[in-house]
């Protein structure tokens, strides 16, 4: 690894908020660091909020808690996170249990924490590319899982809603694309909510730098045709999250500025010079925090309608006929 090339800085919240330098590429001489057996699915419902681990086995007694007559939401965490991360997905899960506007809801948390971690080589260099590539493995397992659910009468595709943050958002897009290809003529996801979908290894510039399977093909990225409805909440555009619209409706928190109110720009020192950069883990997390708050229907976020990105950047959008943003948006 070359310390002068192709890296970014990230605050590892699971390691005392330490600032770490992370390389976009995969660790040299490594293959995927995660197996499908490392991916787990955990069920919670409003009626049975205790955790139940699910498997693709009809004899698994935990399926008795699953309510086929209620909507099902898959929550997929992102980089350096796990299914039991406090804010997302646990915070969102708790909000659905407490405030969702239907009597019951199935919440399935996808745990791929082993693959979402940094890979550290013998020299101590840390690599993000392995985690980005592992989204392929997660997506494939999600497709297998929901296919099994449908074939065994556990759920209907039209009742499923996929919610992902960062790399988890890109995973939802990849899974949708692969499910549709496996089920031509009727295999499209109904709804995806993408929370600040990851930019590194998925943007056009980063794809070439990463030089891995993810991002090398446009179909491996979140796109508007991945579901009937693709809602995207951008909170760190051009930083850790994508800048361009990638959904059927894209919401930009406080415009296109990459740093959210209450967060601070990130600075790095290069040859003694303090340089601000748009990458902000605080801002990157704001997308899932806003979704979580919006699950309580009494909390209403107003969104102005922008004709194009120029109007958004110039703050000349039409705000008289606003729409709601979040869980219950009508778009």
From TrEMBL:
GO cellular component terms given for this protein: extracellular space
Keywords: Secreted
Subcellular location: Secreted
Matching InterPro entries: AB_hydrolase_fold, Lipase, TAG_lipase
Gene Ontology molecular function terms on file: lipase activity
Pfam families: Lipase (PF00151)
Top-level taxon of the source organism: Eukaryota
Annotated ranges, domain Lipase: 29-320
Gene Ontology terms describing biological process: lipid catabolic process
Family: Belongs to the AB hydrolase superfamily. Lipase family.
Protein name: Lipase member H
Species this chain originates from: Folsomia candida (Springtail)
């Amino acid at each position: 690894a070359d310390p002068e090339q192709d890296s970014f800085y990230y605050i590892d919240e699971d390691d005392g908020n330490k600032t770490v330098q992370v390389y976009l590429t995969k660790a040299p001489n490594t293959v995927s660091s995660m197996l499908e057996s490392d991916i787990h699915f955990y069920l919670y419902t409003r009626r049975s909020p205790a955790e139940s681990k699910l498997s693709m086995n009809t004899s698994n007694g935990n399926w008795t808690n699953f309510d086929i007559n209620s909507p099902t939401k898959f929550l997929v965490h992102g980089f350096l996170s796990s299914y039991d991360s406090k804010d997302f997905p646990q915070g969102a899960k708790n909000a659905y249990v407490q405030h969702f506007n239907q009597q019951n809801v199935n919440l399935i948390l996808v745990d791929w924490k082993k693959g979402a971690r940094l890979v550290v080589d013998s020299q101590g260099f840390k690599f993000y590319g392995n985690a980005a590539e592992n989204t392929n493995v997660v997506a494939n397992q999600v497709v297998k899982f929901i296919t099994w659910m449908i074939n065994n009468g556990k759920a209907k595709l039209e009742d499923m809603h996929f919610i992902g943050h960062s790399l988890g958002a890109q995973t939802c897009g990849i899974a949708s694309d692969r499910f549709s290809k496996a089920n031509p003529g009727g295999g499209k996801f109904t709804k995806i909510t993408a929370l600040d979908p990851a930019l590194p290894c998925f943007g056009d510039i980063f794809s070439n730098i990463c030089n891995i399977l993810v991002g090398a093909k446009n179909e491996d990225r979140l796109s508007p045709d991945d579901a009937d409805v693709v809602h995207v909440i951008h909170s760190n555009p051009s930083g850790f999250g994508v800048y361009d619209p990638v959904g059927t409706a894209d919401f930009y928190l406080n415009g296109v500025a990459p740093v959210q109110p209450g967060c601070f720009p990130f600075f790095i020192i290069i040859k003694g010079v303090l340089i601000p950069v748009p990458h902000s883990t605080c801002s990157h997390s704001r997308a899932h925090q806003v979704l979580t708050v919006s699950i309580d229907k009494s909390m209403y976020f107003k969104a102005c309608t922008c004709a194009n990105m120029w109007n958004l950047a110039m703050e000349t959008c039409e705000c008289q006929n606003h729409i709601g943003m979040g869980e219950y948006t009508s778009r």
